[in-house]
């Protein structure tokens, strides 16, 4: 009966047995295990745990460590590794996570951790899960632990890694490797398909490669038709409504749930700028409600933009069409206004646009119900004063708006719309604003009667001229008023021609009216003439931006007035606008004016005649050359037409042509000169295209066996695309109709391009065909159980064979559906080799050789061991057994026999591997020895001291007693009671008898010492406890380290367990919350009590603001190299200087190891030089000692630690400067001198009375001098020059006789 590791542990009730839930990392670092050379061999590097289980016990994966002193099995001729090694095992000197095989994963080796959960129902199981976890270990070296929460159905993973990058990669591999396959559908706008695919599919391929998913995008011919330019209409967004919504395309993503979700997020992130932003129109609201929705001066809209829109949406509410018509009337008369309502438009974040749309619709529905109407009569000419700011004022004060009739409607009734309560006040305001301005009118017809017999036509021409020339605008600007002329449509239908001057200043309006009248009088009938010009050539005469007509007007000193496009009139008025002096008499002046405008009319008619010289040319151009004439994106065609756009070019028969029309034509129409130019250019373009076709149009055609076409084309056309990119040729394969009738179906291949490139492409294709014709297939029978070894990890061995011989290997796959037809037809022992005949033969021979070697290597041996030794053989998390497997190359399985005291072990591999593995296992069994159990009674208050910080003291005690040094082997030797146990004073020792007895003796010895310790209570005000403990307990740890005591503050877990203090009588009347318990020797306790009773700077003064010892202090971290740690922290005045700056310094803990400078060993004994007994004191030889100087920080760690300075803002810089000075001082101590061999009798002279001499030497030389107490070593630290000076000063003191220090 096969039992799992967890069941074995429960059966034997072994403490310290391997974890029943081993790490899933496969190769995660593990504790050390014994070597296999001898029973008492030293430990070898650790091995990770492989979760793949074959039979009864988890089959533990191979290690990453190299074998030690073990002869390797025979090596295959086709592999560089022993054939018995698992295919997935990678042989490297170090584990991939950055942790070597010298120890288990710790917080130092794997400091980065992350915990996450995945629904267990979504996870794959079985071999897929094992392969995924093995991949995690191989690629990241991370340690993975997992557990399933039955209540929530979640599987929790705890991952440890050496760095953040490996941690993130490990999580990604777990989520993708363990998730079940799913199919996700994502809808994207059709215009983003190109962005998702990328150039030549590069973007899409990068996503599929990164996520290991399959992404299906519908074919182009299946996509809906969509033209962004037609949808946008090419018009300004302020003048046109939104077009149809962009269609959505469904993209399918297949893969594991995590990978598919990642791919979806990448796709959406790629097009986030498109899908997150959008626009919308609201078209069902009449424009008469727009002012209510917008609010006075857009106040309501701004609230919506900032509120529901969050500043991410812009709203455009156009003014009512009547308002725009009146404004157009004021600004430009040449174009007819578009009197139609525009939609309300929203642009920005799509989700917030929906919220705003709903809110605007709600407001509209409320307005329809609540608004009332009232009509009043306002003169038509005053309507313009009730829009814009005037309407906003009325709306702001009354909540009402004014609905005006259309601008071209003679109706003078306006409608007041708003709440019933505000209508009366709105009417009063409207009438007030309409009457608030002064209006003066000029009847142009009446003024024209003074000089013209036909005043109406003359008045219309003058009004058009004054408006066209900008004369009215100039008058308005000069007087600060507005001047309005009648619109073109009014002039065409009415005999009244009135120009109005409007303004708030009555005097200015009158002056403007008079100046308008004078301007009308200044244009006599003789200064105007009219010519008839075909409207078709008006735009040609005007030119782009009126440049052509402007030149004409300047040259002839006239102004031309063309009819608007809507009038469809041929009348063009020419008015004299020059400044030359004219004759004084009326007759002479009129004659001169008629002469000037007559000459201008003749010139304009001449230009019109030239422009009217329009002709049409039809060129015979074959349809295949049309693309050259059009160019990419119409670029060539646009260049031919030019900026003026006077030429029209039609390529082909055109859309409206009847069926059967000639398509081999290009039609050019326009001014004759431009037509001639364009025709010449088109002929040249066609000629160049024909020449290029001659050069690049070489064609080669031949037939290809149809069964080879798929191989020649490649996946998604990759092969022919490569030919196209490298040789610049086009390759097409077409079915041959005649070939279909033949016995052997063929396809027709056509290659087009330059001759040399076409011939090379043909040669390559034919060479590929020859290779395909030489292809053969062989089937080799290989046992299923040895196939994984032939494939290799990740298929590397199989891939190497394929690349070496140019063949394709196909191994049978596992088919879970054994009842399916494919499963029944498939044979698990057949391997297919396909390729060239020579390559297949060579690959077959090597594969059979490797298979024979693998079959020979799979031997089996079975033996039994005591069941109590199973835990030691397996090791913690399989470390020991994994190490044996790695070193020997054998496979080891543990089974449980019928006997309770025996366990069967099966070893598989070659003979050498089996022998070595068996010897290693038996060596572990011999190490177990005679096991005994001892129960020690130790007072619970001593437990913490005996265990030490982090258990280090207990580990050192076990190692010193002859026990194992490895942490995983120490587990179970000493067991202290846990909180809640019945016997809280019983410590259990279990293990080898000799080791247990030594540990017992050492523990009893230490307990005797602890019994001599005292527990003293120290009165410390509770307000100072926080400062004494420090941030994160740093101050408390430093105090305990310095005094070698245990200090417990009220509220700590151990405080009440310590018991009563020895000096209870001294603490009468002291508040229990102020008593701090200190445990240690009498001297240490006294020192700790003295330090505790020193008032804290933070709490020791009432003026907390001055001292800054509270949460209101600012702090700054200063990064200081680790190598300067002791040089700075041991500076005697540093803390005092920091305190003098009203600041506090937190020194990082724990402190790094202090470097020890030891003089280099030499042949002479230092002790021999300390004293000479064969010389009298008077005859002492001069002693110079042994001297050595070296770099102080040589080989030191370059890492940094953060020292924290806390102070008020105004003191912080000063305090940091003190610390920076200390850093510079430590940096200057670049050298250390080691002086030995001086007589010990001279040391008192070097030190001097109460240290006076050594203090003087330190001050004079600027060095730190330390005189050894136990030896004759004198250490001098400082700069190189100061160290040498200090050495000479010390020798001077030693050699000076008769002096007293």
Task: Describe the protein in words.
- The chain has 1301 residues and is of the alpha+beta class.
- The chain folds into 10 domains: 5-179 and 861-928, no CATH class; 182-275, K Homology domain, type 1 (Ribosomal Protein S8, Chain: A, domain 1); 277-438, 2-Layer Sandwich (Ribosomal Protein S8, Chain: A, domain 1), CATH 3.30.1370.10; 439-611, K Homology domain, type 1 (Ribosomal Protein S8, Chain: A, domain 1), CATH 3.30.1370.10; 614-655 and 662-695, K Homology domain, type 1 (Ribosomal Protein S8, Chain: A, domain 1, 2-Layer Sandwich); 775-855, Ribosomal Protein S8, Chain: A, domain 1, CATH 3.30.1370; 933-1005, Ribosomal Protein S8, Chain: A, domain 1; 1013-1094, K Homology domain, type 1 (Ribosomal Protein S8, Chain: A, domain 1), CATH 3.30.1370; and more.
- It is built from 50 helices and 45 strands.
- The strands form 15 sheets. A 4-stranded antiparallel sheet has the order 41-43-45-44, with helices on one face.
- Helix 2 (127-140) runs antiparallel to helix 3 (164-178) and helix 5 (202-211) runs antiparallel to helix 7 (257-270).
- The two termini are 87 Å apart.
Write the layout of secondary structure elements.
Blueprint: H1 5-12, E1 33-34, E2 43-44, E3 112-119, H2 127-140, E4 143-149, E5 154-161, H3 164-178, E6 181-189, H4 193-197, H5 202-211, E7 214-216, H6 228-232, E8 248-256, H7 257-270, H8 272-275, E9 277-282, H9 290-294, H10 299-306, E10 313-316, H11 321-331, E11 344-349, H12 350-370, E12 372-377, H13 389-398, E13 401-403, E14 413-418, H14 423-434, E15 438-443, H15 444-448, H16 455-468, H17 471-479, E16 482-484, H18 488-493, E17 498-503, H19 506-521, E18 528-532, H20 538-542, H21 547-556, E19 558-561, E20 571-576, H22 586-611, E21 614-620, H23 626-630, H24 635-641, E22 648-651, E23 665-671, H25 672-696, E24 698-705, H26 709-713, H27 718-727, E25 730-735, H28 737-741, E26 746-753, H29 755-773, E27 775-781, H30 787-791, H31 796-805, E28 807-810, H32 821-825, E29 830-836, H33 837-857, E30 859-866, H34 870-874, H35 879-888, E31 891-896, E32 902-909, H36 911-928, E33 931-937, H37 943-947, H38 952-960, H39 967-970, E34 974-975, E35 986-992, H40 993-1011, E36 1014-1019, H41 1025-1029, H42 1034-1043, E37 1046-1048, E38 1075-1080, ...
Antiparallel strand pairs: 1-2, 3-5, 4-5, 6-8, 7-8, 9-11, 10-11, 12-14, 13-14, 15-17, 16-17, 18-20, 19-20, 21-23, 22-23, 24-26, 25-26, 27-29, 28-29, 30-32, 31-32, 33-35, 34-35, 36-38, 37-38, 39-42, 40-42, 41-43, 43-45, 44-45
Helix pairs in contact: 2-3, 5-7, 13-14, 17-19, 31-33, 35-36, 46-47, 49-50
